[in-house]
Design goal:
Helix content: 55-70%
Number of domains: 2
Radius of gyration: 23 Å
Largest sheet: none
Number of helices: 4
Number of strands: 0
Structural class: mainly alpha
Distance between the termini: 74 Å
Strand content: under 5%
Oligomer: single chain
């Protein structure tokens, strides 16, 4: 009898983990959406201005490499530096 009870506990634990899985996936998606680029720059100068405004220096980040990464796939560019668009910078000034 004691062994049958242990088996039920293992099954219920496994079911609990399966039921929690969708919530974990939602958290991962939410975290990934945070870094999706919602800003766009028309020129490399605009991006350089955004980098300067964020406090990053050219020694910390290569503007040309960042621009190439942005140009290669604008929709999936991950804005991990949380750079702002020129419009957002101008609104703050």
């Amino acid at each position: 009898m004691a062994h049958a009870h242990k088996g039920k506990k293992k099954v219920s634990k496994a079911m609990g983990a399966i039921l929690k899985a969708p919530k974990k996936a939602e958290k991962v998606v939410k975290a990934a959406k945070k870094h999706v680029n919602h800003t766009h720059w028309d020129t490399i100068e605009d991006m350089a201005t955004a980098l300067e405004h964020s406090g990053l220096t050219p020694e910390q980040i290569n503007v040309h490499q960042e621009w190439e990464a942005y140009q290669s796939d604008k929709d999936d560019y991950r804005n991990v530096q949380n750079l702002k668009s020129i419009e957002q910078i101008n609104k703050e000034s």
